[in-house]
Specification:
Shape: globular
Number of strands: 12
Number of helices: 13
Strand content: 5-15%
Radius of gyration: 19 Å
Bound molecules: pyridoxal-5'-phosphate
Largest sheet: 6 strands, mixed
Order of helices and strands: EEHHEEHEHEHEHEHHEHEHHEHHE
Strand order of the largest sheet: 3-4-12-9-10-11
């Protein structure tokens, strides 16, 4: 029996997770169609919080035993009032201190179900760390490729989980090419949070949780950071699934936020100013050429998503402001909050922003 539920691509073609294939012939990442959810509010309340609470929406045939073997208590992050109608969702309270745990838990559990013997991934830091942790939990050796300039604390963390960390000279794309070459050479499983659509099947639980935490209702606005778009695309998919299941009758207003210095989505959808590729303190979203760029642009157009950019000064100020309220986040994680504060008066009431990664990740204190 397959360890997976029946999955379909957008367009209806069946899609089966595979230990080797990671890129479709067309060259763009696979995009999974919404899945029928099969849970009702009453089913959820008695279950422990976290990603696996929503197992009817997850891709596994037997998710409960998968969770017991591969889970680390991911998801179930609290909401905290940040004032002025803005609520933070504390993704930094994840086992590896970023939201990437949601996707990594599901993707590595799939790798374990496929019986793979070695995992390769590439990352600007947090995804690799999360993959390393869940690979450790599943007992699968992992190799993580990162750009040489990645914050050292993220590498310490990935190494602590037993992963082999390879720092690649050059930018984020160079680390990606090195990982692809290693996959090609060794036949290892490519646990790419960008390419493998199962990662988004984990991050979509971000939407289910907000819905449940808001009393089974959607908030006015959901503001998200966008680099490769794994939280953005996953969360949008989650809200679309809730609507398709008749569990909500509307979507929240979505806001996608990029760093002004590296804003390819902003530029693709007609934003002016900013740059497509450049250095920024928001290292977690410094992605010049995201493979899912076209997909994100079509989501922006179809759902009328507002796209914003935030410069490094605003990010630094937002990071400091959050720290002074007791919440120390890495610079990347201050980006959506910075945007939400700036455009607050133009957004509907009740605006949820993720605090997507912990401040100690970058080991750089906000300026005094
Ligand atoms: C990865 C990451 C992001 C951005 O996620 P994308 O999938 O690249 O859009 C934001 N914040 C933190 C802390 C991250 O680790």
């Amino acid at each position: 029996m397959s360890p997976f539920k029946e999955l379909r691509l957008v367009g209806g073609e069946p899609w089966v997770p595979d230990p080797v294939a990671w890129r479709p012939a067309g060259g763009r990442p696979w995009r999974l169609a919404p899945v029928p959810l099969g849970f009702r509010p009453g089913d959820l309340v008695g279950r422990p919080p976290g990603v696996w609470r929503y197992h009817e929406g997850l891709p596994f045939a037997d998710p409960v035993s998968v969770a017991a073997r591969c889970g680390l208590g991911e998801g179930g992050t609290p909401l905290v009032d940040l004032g002025d109608g803005v609520t933070g969702k504390l993704e930094l309270a994840s086992p590896t201190l970023s939201f990437k745990d949601r996707g990594a838990a599901v993707l590595v559990a799939a790798a374990a179900a496929l019986g793979v013997e070695r995992i390769v991934c590439d990352s600007s830091g947090n995804a690799g760390t999360a993959i390393a942790a869940y690979a450790a939990r599943a007992g699968i050796p992992a190799v993580v490729f990162v750009p040489a300039a990645t914050s050292p604390a993220k590498l310490v963390q990935a190494r602590a989980h037993g992963a082999e960390v390879r720092a690649v000279p050059g930018d984020r794309a160079a680390a990606g090419r090195a990982a692809e070459a290693e996959v090609e050479r060794t036949g290892a499983f490519y646990a790419s949070h960008v390419w493998n659509p199962l990662f988004l099947e984990g991050t979509k639980t971000y939407a289910y949780e907000i819905w449940q935490q808001r009393g089974f209702a959607v908030p006015g606005a959901v503001v998200m950071p966008v680099g490769n778009g794994t939280l953005f695309l996953g969360a949008v998919k989650g809200f679309l699934e809730l609507r398709a299941a008749g569990l909500v009758d509307r979507l929240p207003s979505f806001v996608a936020v990029q760093a002004a210095a590296c804003a390819p989505l902003w530029q693709t959808v007609g934003g002016t100013g900013g740059a497509a590729a450049g250095p920024t303190i928001a290292e977690g979203i410094a992605i010049a050429a995201p493979p899912r760029l076209d997909e994100m642009a079509s989501v922006v157009r179809e759902l009328d998503v507002r796209v914003e950019v935030v410069d490094d000064d605003e990010t630094e100020r937002a990071q400091r402001d959050l720290a002074r309220r007791g919440l120390f986040v890495e610079p990347t994680a201050a980006v959506p909050y910075a945007a939400a504060r700036r455009i607050r008066s133009e957004l509907p009431d009740d605006c949820v922003v993720p605090l997507s990664g912990a401040g100690l990740k970058t080991a750089v204190a906000p300026p005094p």
